[in-house]
Design a protein that fits this description.
Elements: H1 2-18, E1 23-26, H2 29-36, E2 44-47, E3 55-58, E4 76-79, H3 88-98, E5 103-106, H4 113-122, E6 127-130, H5 134-139, H6 144-165, H7 174-187, E7 192-193, E8 198-201, E9 222-227, E10 229-231, E11 234-235, E12 238-243, H8 250-268, H9 276-289, E13 301-303, E14 310-314, E15 327-330, E16 333-336, E17 340-343, E18 346-349, E19 359-360
Parallel strand pairs: 1-5, 3-4, 5-6
Antiparallel strand pairs: 1-2, 2-3, 7-10, 8-9, 9-12, 10-11, 13-14, 15-18, 16-17, 18-19
Helix pairs in contact: 3-4, 6-7, 8-9
């Protein structure tokens, strides 16, 4: 993998050089991991004029890293001495100045004001430029190794959800079911959950961002579940809705079929070159045409990777177009206050039609099951 990380750093170096910066300081943990293979707590990456000048700077008290992180062996590491040995970002800025750099590109969206001032004070002759979201944009298109990690994470999430559906659900609380799902993710090889697992029953079902409560599952409830697995740092998600203990009511079937149609429209729009807002529009207009214009989620989906919410954003105001090998979610939903609702969420990879179209990573059935 060393050549992969080196190639990523080279691309960023070329971007910085084109912008007039001889060095860059990467402080956002996901970006450090993307470029270095690992991101010990508090560590920063100094990108120098050449590969030989690249350096990972870590605080002595947090140099240990999780076993699933594999640091690029070709990358030099500086560990600051002892507990409280200083700020790695400040040390890296001083190192850049010592190497003769006159400009340092920094991730202003991640730095605090105090930290930015500290960088300027340690090397007053060093001009600080804004790197912006350059690394995040490099991360949008995934290589096949990254997609493989997402695929394995999706398999783990599917397996955890499938096992839960085979158990007795009536009488158990939302909180208990969420904790059991997260335990099963780890049991099957995940680093951990990709985000806090959401389980909603009855009037809570389908509510975006619902945090599990002590409400117990009852017969006739909608049950909505949204979970995700992290595997080697890469995060995916899946969301499904079911009916508990009895044949679904007519209104439940109607609502489910509508959300399913919206989700299918969004999935079928995932082609290279498609405008991100058009994917959102394809799913949203299905719900709009049925009269559900109020209370819809602000976006239909988003990118996933080292973070659970990455670019691109599939929303009405989204800019840009989709590229091949971009993993995204498609997750429309409708929530009816006091009654419950439906959410269907998949993680897919954008692929050209010649390669079979969008690759579905989360394969748990989307039939309206009565559990």
């Amino acid at each position: 993998m060393s050549e992969v990380y080196a190639a990523r750093r080279t691309r960023l170096r070329e971007y910085c050089n084109a912008g007039g910066s001889a060095a860059a300081l990467i402080s956002r943990p996901a970006n450090v991991r993307y470029l270095a293979g690992a991101a010990p707590q508090g560590a920063v990456l100094l990108l120098g004029r050449t590969e030989e000048h690249d350096l990972l700077v870590s605080a002595g008290a947090s140099a240990d890293r999780p076993t699933q992180e594999r640091l690029d062996e070709a990358l030099r590491v500086q560990t600051l001495p002892g507990v409280g040995g200083g700020d790695p970002a400040v040390a890296a800025a001083g190192r850049a100045a010592g190497q003769g750099a006159d400009s340092l590109a920094v991730e202003e969206h991640h730095l605090t004001v105090a930290r930015h001032r500290a960088l300027g004070s340690v090397a007053p002759g060093l001009r600080l430029a804004n790197l912006g979201s350059a690394v995040e944009q490099l991360r949008v298109v995934k290589d096949e190794e990254e997609i493989s990690c997402l695929r394995i994470g999706a398999e783990i999430a599917d397996q955890a959800l499938g096992e839960l559906l085979e158990s007795i659900l009536v009488g158990r609380t939302e909180r208990h079911l969420a904790l059991e799902l997260e335990r099963r993710l780890v049991d099957h090889g995940a680093d951990g959950p990709a985000f806090p697992t959401s389980v909603g029953t009855g009037p809570n079902a389908g509510r975006p961002g619902h945090r599990p409560t002590d409400r117990r599952v009852e017969e006739g409830d909608f049950l909505s579940v949204c979970l995700g697995a992290t595997y080697r740092g890469y995060r995916c998600e899946i969301g499904r809705t079911f009916v508990i203990g009895t044949a679904p009511a007519d209104w439940q079937i109607e609502l489910y079929d509508l959300v399913f149609a919206a989700q299918r429209a969004g999935r079928e729009s995932l082609v290279p070159g498609a405008a991100c807002r058009d994917v959102d529009r394809a799913a949203r207009q299905v719900l709009d045409s049925a009269g559900y214009t109020e209370g819809l989620t602000v976006l239909t989906g988003h990118g996933v990777g080292l973070e659970i919410d990455e670019d691109p954003q599939l929303s009405p105001a989204a800019m840009g177009k989709l590229d091949a090998c971009v993993p995204v979610t498609v997750e429309p939903g409708v929530h009816l206050p006091g009654r419950g609702g439906v959410r269907i969420d998949d993680t897919l990879v954008v692929r050209p039609e010649a390669d079979g179209g969008p690759e579905l990573l989360t394969i748990t059935t989307k039939e309206l099951l009565a559990l």
